[in-house]
Design brief:
It holds the Pfam family BTB. This protein has 627 residues and is an alpha+beta fold. The chain contains 16 helices and 37 strands. A four-stranded antiparallel β-sheet has the order 7-6-5-36. Strand 1 and strand 2 form a beta hairpin. Helix 7 crosses helix 9.
């Protein structure tokens, strides 16, 4: 009986749903036919003289705008006409077709106007369809208009994608695009206040403002003072300032405000640099020549490699130490830990600001470290693992808050570890392989340790091989692991001391997914040479490998290591069939080098740096005398 009852209930529910769906379909099909035949229409939308009879009950049921209009004693609810004289009749027709049929055919010429109408009348499904269509057809030719739409109608996805194109093409758009002259004042102010504009000189922004004002000078001149408040005048060179003086001389209602400023004041008055005023370089900390006298006499250099020009430069010297680690946050470089030339270990943290042109020492770590992990995530610096004296491995980590300028401990690592590859991906820190003695003897790890920053928790997954002293960079929603020492292992999850002679330097590279597991569907060509301990950094969409070593362990008759060091520079771009060797090599060393700190960072371009080298007079504001 119970089974019969369940069967009856199931059939009853199925029949009810079928009747409900059939009734829904019948009702809307009937309304569509009534609209087509203009029967029982009780309201009319009027747009630029064209009349569109329709049913107020349908409009009110779907749309909160019309619901409020027809359920209150407004004129429209009394005389049965809704005036939309500012809307094109074709848009009203398309909107009503969507009401009655839930179908819309979007074309580029209509989609923007329909997006505005859907936003105005809060037709959310139609608004989503229009937004998706506009995103699919976004280009550098229409990005200004779509930026304005996204900004005015609070569409974050459309605004962000359009902003990316406006940032990248601002110079051309502001100088040549006629739609730039149609921007409203608030949108223009929002654009010229962006740090992310790809302009190498602030004169580009200044000229853009004047071009917009002069297009309709009578009505736009009152906005000039507000607009120029967003132009970073202290970043103009002397030659550019003369152009400003010439323009202002022609307008008696404008007044210049000058001030003698130093580095700090210039940066403060300008509110920072634009993205295009930087160039991204690869910085290598503590490059030195391994040939010649003892290490303590060496000159430790901070080298700066520009991959675009394939040239090396120098940053100011830091302390003489090796096996230090570095990371960049914005245009600041941070260096921590390392070994001094007297074999003592360092707990210091230093910051280098290119605009200040010098190193400053920040609060020190609680533990001295070398060959450790040093990563940046969410405006925090993480110093993890490493060692503090000969074969004394560390299982601790600590975090430096860049705002608070203070260190705090993080959760203890699952095992003591040094010489691992490390990278940051989506709020998690990844430590790949490494060297440890957590079972009482030396061995290379086959684990990927994952630190979840927000939860302060560690997890791990296993690799197929032991490895250490690889390099790693995060890119394309995963982590590329480059080179290192490897040894294959059997597939069981226990750790034991390996035979050191089986560890070999490798040309191997592989890709880890966000879960920390090897993704074999991603193909990376093998390195041109066996390489470990190299500096590995991401520059734009390329991976660069600098220097490195190949040590043959206990391979000769005397029982000593054979070592080979490299000063070569290679790069690979995902999708390319092989690695490319650069013409330039590591500077300051003819023999080669491994184990140095390496990271990509933003450096101000030379004209900008020249402005910050000395105290000078700068233009800090242009004021409207009648404001």
């Amino acid at each position: 009986m119970w089974a019969i009852g369940c069967s009856f209930l199931s059939r009853w529910i199925s029949l009810s749903l079928s009747l409900s769906l059939s009734l829904h379909f019948t009702a809307f099909t009937g309304l569509e036919h009534l609209h087509q035949e203009q029967l029982l229409c009780d309201t009319t939308i009027v747009a630029k003289g064209e009349r569109f009879p329709c049913h107020r009950m349908l409009l009110a049921a779907i749309n909160p705008y019309f619901r409020a209009m027809f359920s209150n004693p407004f004129r429209e609810s009394q005389d049965g006409e809704v005036l939309l004289q500012d809307m094109d009749p074709s848009i009203v027709q398309a909107m009503l077709n969507y009401y009655y049929t839930e179908q819309i055919t979007l074309v580029p010429g209509m989609a923007q106007d329909l997006f505005v109408a859907a936003s105005r009348f809060q037709i959310l499904p139609l608004l989503e369809s229009c937004s998706r269509f506009l995103l699919e057809h976004l280009s550098s030719e229409n990005c200004l208009r779509l930026y304005e739409l996204g900004y005015a109608h609070s569409d974050p996805a459309l605004l962000q994608e359009a902003k990316n194109l406006v940032n990248a093409h601002f110079r051309r758009l502001s100088q040549e695009d006629e739609s730039f002259l149609d921007l409203n004042p608030s949108t223009l102010m929002n654009i010229i206040s962006l740090d992310s504009l790809a302009v190498s000189s602030e004169i580009v922004v200044y000229r853009a403002v004047w071009r917009w004002v002069k297009a309709q000078s009578a009505s736009r001149l009152p906005f000039l003072g507000q607009l120029l408040a967003h132009v970073r005048l202290p970043l103009l060179t002397e030659e550019e300032l003369r152009e400003v003086q010439t323009d202002v001389t022609c307008h008696r209602e404008l007044r210049l405000r000058w001030k003698r400023v130093n580095r700090h004041e210039r940066l403060q008055h300008s509110r920072g640099l634009r993205r295009g005023m930087y160039t991204t370089c690869i910085v290598c900390v503590d490059l030195f020549n391994m040939e010649g006298p003892e290490l303590k006499t060496k000159d430790f250099q901070v080298g700066c490699y520009d991959p675009q020009a394939e040239t090396w430069g120098k940053l100011p010297l830091l302390k003489c130490l090796y096996c230090a680690r570095c990371v960049a946050v914005g245009d600041k470089l941070y260096v921590t830990g390392g070994v001094h030339t007297d074999d003592t270990y360092s707990d210091t943290l230093h910051e280098y600001s290119p605009l200040k042109g010098r190193w400053i020492q920040l609060p020190s770590m609680s533990v001295a470290r070398a060959s450790h992990g040093f990563l940046a995530c969410n405006q925090q610096l993480f110093a993890i693992g490493g060692w503090c004296k000969y074969e004394d491995y560390l299982n601790t980590g600590e975090c430096f808050d860049l705002a608070e300028k203070s260190w705090s401990p993080i959760a203890q690592m699952p095992l003591a570890l040094s010489h691992f590859a490390s990278a940051v991906l989506k709020g998690k820190l990844y430590l790949v392989g490494g060297v440890t003695d957590s079972v009482g003897s030396w061995y290379a790890s086959r684990k990927v340790l994952i630190y979840h920053v927000s939860a302060d928790l560690w997890s791990h997954v296993f690799l197929d091989n032991e490895c250490y002293w690889s390099g790693a960079v995060a890119m394309n929603n995963g982590i590329y692991v480059i080179g290192g020492y490897f040894r294959s292992r059997s597939r069981h999850h226990t750790e034991r001391r390996p035979d050191s002679s089986n560890l070999r330097c490798s040309r191997r590279c592989f890709f880890l997914g966000e879960d920390g597991k090897v993704d074999k569907s991603v193909t990376i060509p093998r390195l041109p040479i066996e390489l470990a301990g190299a500096g590995v950094a991401r520059w734009k969409h390329r991976i660069y490998v600098l220097g490195g070593e190949n040590t043959y362990l206990y391979n000769n008759l005397e029982g000593e290591n054979d070592e080979e060091y490299y000063n070569t520079v290679y790069y690979w771009e995902p999708g390319a069939p092989k690695w490319v060797q650069c013409q330039d090599r590591l500077p300051f060393t003819s023999w080669g080098l491994s184990g140095f700190g390496c990271t990509a960072m933003k450096l101000p371009k030379k004209p900008i740096l020249d402005l910050f080298r000395k105290t000078s007079v700068a233009l800090t504001a242009i004021e409207m005398l009648n404001s």
